[in-house]
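Marked as duplicate of an earlier ticket. Keeping the data here for the record.
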Amino acid sequence: MDQIRCADFLESLALLIEAGVPVLRAMTDLKHSGATRETRNWAKALQQQLSSGLPLSDSFEGFPGRLEARHIALIHAHAQMGTVHLALKECAQDLRILHEQRNQLLRGLLPPALLLHMAVILPSVPVLLLDSTQAFFREVGSQLAWVYGIAAVVWFLATQCRRIAPLRLVMDHSLIRLPVVGRTLCDLEHARFFRTLGSLYSAGITIPKAFLLATQTYDNSLLRKSAGKLQPDLARGGLLENALQRIPGMPSFVEPIVAVHREAGRLEVGLQIAASRMQEQGARSRQQLLTFATRTAYLLALAYAGYRVISLWMDYMSQLDEILDGL
């Protein structure tokens, strides 16, 4: 819900700025009319930053909401052409997309998670019937400890490693090379890049400078570093479509779209079309990723359930053999 509240706050601020309301007055209005205490605190924090003389784009550096580095870079890029409200709207849209992605993933993983718990608990029921309650909870607890331990490691790698620069660099390089995950990440990152590049170019910023600013919106460090190295070639007169094809994971359909519209003098239209195509492809890739993650979770849960049933059955059979041998 934090992402949705942050998106609502950014959209409200964007509407006020677009309507011509001074920024400090907009903060005052949001501080007194915020829907939640959290949004009122965000407005108060930004107002304090602005009152100290910082520009609005710099004030978001310490914003306590759910903004990431790529969102801050996008706000800085639009601040240079006086269209901060467009950056705020795009950040809000991105937060809503992230929120929906997380909900879809959680909804998809819930049934496999329940199946996994059943695979741990049900095979241990004979222990409850034949031994004791303590032995049952000891058996189930030891199995669940492994499950939760693996889940904790996955959660740490997915979230906390992003805060450690060397680990994040390794993780970013690894994720891009994964078959399904890498394709999805590249599509979504490139779509954001093209939206920013098109907005900056349409506002009158030259392609070399707009390209440099747009590269800062890449969240993946490998893509950001690879794209940043191409800016000097553009500054020396290189063609944009040639530079784009050298970015990792860039689809082949981008080059002809950009080349045709550049030669026709409508490059901004070509960038918008490329952004739209990338957004559609990213949506398809995201759905494929969610389906892949759900099916993988089901297979792992079923495999573990089979392992538990077979191992316990073999254990019971060995005990039965010992009892029969004793007779």
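See parent ticket for discussion. The chain has 16 helices and no strands.
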